[in-house]
Amino acid sequence: MTIWLAMFLSAPLLAQPDWVQFNDETASRINAASNVSINDVAEKDYAWGDVDLDGDTDLIIVRKLAFTTGGVSAFRSNLLLLNQGGILVDRTVDFASASDVAGDSGFLTPTNDRDVILADVTGDGWLDIVTAVTLADGSPKHIAYPRVYRNLGLSAGVWQGFLHEDERIPQFEGNVPGGTVPHAPRFCSLDAGDIDGDGDLDIYLGDYDSGGGQTLDFNDRLLINDGNGFFTDQTASFFSGSIIIGGSPFPFQQSAFGMASSIRDMNGDGSLDIIKDTALNPPQYVGISYNDAANTGNFASHKESWASMAPYHVTVGDLNADGANDLVVTDDNADSYLINTGNDSSGLANFTRFFYSFQGGTGATGDDGFGGNSLIADLNNDGWNDVIITDVDVDIAGCNRRMHIYHNLGNAPNVTLQQENDGGLWRPNGVHDVAVFDINGDGWLDMVIGTCSGTEVWMNEAPIGLNLTFPLGIPDAVPCSGTVGITVLAEPFGGGVLSTSSVKLHVSTDGGPFVENSMTAGPGGLFEGTLDGSQGSVSIEWFVSAALTSGMIANSPTVLNLIGDEITRNTENFETGASGWTVQSDASVTAGSWVRAIPNGTSSGGTPSAPSVAANGQWCWVTGNGAPGGAAGTADLDGGPTHLISPSFNLAGSNGTVSFNLWYANIESDPTQMDEMSFSISIDGGATWTTAMVVGGALGTSGTWQNFQINLGDVVSTTANTMFRFTASDSPNNSLTEVAVDDFVIETVTCGGGSIIFKRGDVNLDGNLDISDPVTILQMLFNSASVGCDDAADANDDSALNIADAVAVLSSLFGGAGNLPEPVNCGQDPTDDGLTCLTGCP
Fold first, then answer.
1. pLDDT tens digits along 701-746
2. Which helix (H) or strand (E) holds 806?
């Protein structure tokens, strides 16, 4: 029997010791004075992008005295590092030292910048710089307020760099009482986005209250762009209502320690929402203020993303590749990530919380307590975003913890993020921030790491390996008496060299041994092979192998193709009803019988138990469905078995597979007490059952949705009364057991151009061969009565309809002549004749 787990055929096949590797190339990748680079002890925050539009990525570094510090002694100058051939070169003096304020020298003027972004606020196609300034009490406005550095673009084909322009950010509060200097804001974070839908970028600034002695609590501010890159504070006119935290209302723009701010679309309505983290003191939460898509720029709906956390930083990104934005939360307790599970009845995003996994290696036993900035990026080019969490607390001194890198295992939708033994050197202690971008243009993301003692550059070591992909796709089936081509693209990477003679197509027919076949080389790394349906009767399994000249071998995933000329798919996603599926439960089931529902997820100790979303769509079958936010043990399966049973399907005379998405979670500390669930098939309408697959123990789904495919011919000979059954049990009732099923698909293929199947002699198509059939033949011949299948009426298979057919049926029934010609049971006509069949077996 063959059980298939669904797989992505285009996934790269890599060969390397760890899932990702970096080399320390600090000495050769930075060209800057050591006191502002490799030996820089200042706190550092990064922004990166192609500021000079020369095709590579440049780096902005803003610096200040570490932790919550203010006054001129905390101020530091900033850096512009241009990427010049893969080397980050300090060009601050040349391109970032100008200002429209007398005596100000742009980046060379010491400031207390806490955060920085690159955004085209002037709309001219060039990235500008905006910084968030903090704790500059007693300083003039151009030092105390956020600063905008306009990108001057090209002049006579030469890039002109940046100019600090003070008037772009107005002074939106007055001066301190009796003084000539303004109240100084304490902004800690910022982001840019078009929140009012007018085509330009606006700015949201997050405020914090630490540092003592502030003359005015600014709270967060929303600055609206006039279209030319000049801003006004319109916070009061854009926000209304309150966000409820712990039962208490707070204005959304009120912050205690606004460590992070983002502008993204969180509920998929096309309008940009505002995400913030406010830490340390009430209100303490990660929350979202939702932009009203029907009245863009109106922020009246606010929602906490997950209650009762102790958040310190939040980053937005898509972790499970579903197109929806998820959240990575640095927490003073256990760090976590929130998967976006769709919207509630008010159109606001729901989330399910997950915790990180740790597997071996130095420092891989926990998240070390307090953390700092976080980042989402695909470090190993597998299409799944990984997570970095730095360890330096912005507010409290301490550089003894360790940066963490979490590998996204890609087991969507509830992906696992796991710290693995990926080497300690590129996860140093005392990290303020990390910039992740491709420095040398090799297609792999590198890291600039800002630590308490300096700046380090770690280059991603592109592994040597071989990708095997199928650019033309894979066939749905193999023709019964014909061939189908297979085209594979073999692409070495990391300096590997392909051995062209090694590319082979391995083919197994009807479950037999694999036979190796050479593939024909074409242009550009393409190779051609052929599958021949005439070599089998049921199915063909195949895979492609290739090798590098170094000897490294790569194999594609194995593919199962049925042999057939016509494909029929019966798909049930359970979105519109039960569709004939029924439930039978043993009397011992006290909770958790199968139910069709929109699932409410549960977890135990951070381990998923019940799914929070269907595999696709909204509805699926689950073993019990608890209330939202309920405990894992309140609605899980207790006792059993409970059976989910399909209606009957007519699969007579065809090859076929069945596939489905399955969730199985069994949380049990004693491995000898693990429960199992089974999938069974009946060919006699449910009278007897044959087990096709058992899930649990060695074969489990680890509390995630996975797709399974079973070749029916390996298990049973299908009939016109084929049924399927999912059986789950928690017996003895001593563990958390949850099962869910979605997207049940039966795929059948037939040969002979897709002829309708029939039973020889069953002229009235009632499924039986009896005296009524020769009577129907006589009525056809002498009363011009119509029949649904001429092939069935051709009882002697002589390609003609006449009295001999009635005699043949009577002789088979009463004359001892034996069976009529094939098909005796439901099947296709083996004779190529001119007769037709419009209706077949019932």
1. 566 788 898 988 889 988 889 999 999 988 776 667 889 999 999 9
2. helix 803-814
- Are residues 623 and 702 part of one domain? yes
How confident is the model at residue 737, as a pLDDT? 83
Q: Are 121 and 200 in contact (CB under 8 A)?
A: yes
Give the pLDDT confidence score for residue 15 in this predicted structure.
Answer: 31
Q: Tens digit of pLDDT for each residue in 29-56?
A: 999 999 999 999 999 999 999 999 999 9
Of the three residues 121, 156, 185, the one that is the final residue of a domain is 185
Cα dihedral 692/694/698/701 (nearest 10): 100
For residue 547, being part of any structural domain is answered with: yes
The single-letter code of the amino acid at 778 is L
Residues 6+ apart with CB under 8 A from 537: 510, 563, 655
| Residues listed for the chain | 842
Q: What pLDDT is stored for residue 751 in this prediction?
A: 77
What pLDDT was estimated at residue 698?
43
> What dihedral do alpha carbons 33, 34, 38, 43 form, nearest 10°?
-80
Q: Are 208 and 259 in contact (CB under 8 A)?
A: yes
pTM: 0.61
Is-cis flag, bond preceding 249, omega within 30?
no
Is residue 631 one of the residues assigned to a domain?
yes
End-to-end CA distance of the chain: 29
**Looking at the 3D structure of the chain, how many domains does it have?**
4
Answer yes or no: do 626 and 733 share one domain: yes
Residue 454 has which token pair?
């300096």
Nearest to 314 by CA among 286, 355, 274: 286
Do 707 and 591 belong together in one domain? yes
Query: What CATH number is given to the structural domain containing 695?
Result: 2.60.120.200
Residues 516 and 537 in one domain: yes
Q: Kindly tell me if the per-residue pLDDT of 755 is higher than 60.
A: no
Whether residues 650 and 677 fall in one domain: yes
Is 819 domain-assigned? yes
In a domain, 352, yes or no: no
Cis peptide preceding 146, ω within 30 of 0: no
Helix axes 772-783, 803-814, angle to 10 degrees: 170
In this structure, what DSSP letter does residue 395 have? S
501 or 419: whose pLDDT is higher? 501
Domain extent at residue 636:
568-750
Asked whether the bond before 413 is cis by omega within 30 degrees of 0, the reply is yes
Together in a domain, 46 and 116: yes
159 has which bridge partners? 154
> Is the domain of 599 the same as that of 680?
yes
CA distances 34 to 30, 40, 302, 453, 456, Å, are: 9, 7, 46, 11, 11
